[in-house]
Amino acid sequence: MRIANLDDRLVLLCDGGALDVHTASGGRFGPDPQSAFDDWPAFLQWARGAQGQARPFDDADLGAPVPRPRQIFAIGLNYVRHAHESNLPIPEQPMVFTKFQSAVTGPSGRIALTGDTVDWEVELVAVIGTPAHRVDVTQAWDHVAGLTVGQDLSDRTVQTAGSPPQFSMGKSFPGFAPIGPALVTIEEFADPDDLRVSTDLNGVTVQDSRTSDLVFSVPELIAYLSSIVTLLPGDLIFTGTPEGVGLGRTPPSYLVDGDTIVTTIEGIGSMRHDMYVPEHLNQPHSLSGKGAS
Question: Which GO terms describe its molecular function (predicted)?
Answer without folding.
Answer: isomerase activity; metal ion binding; ureidoglycolate lyase activity
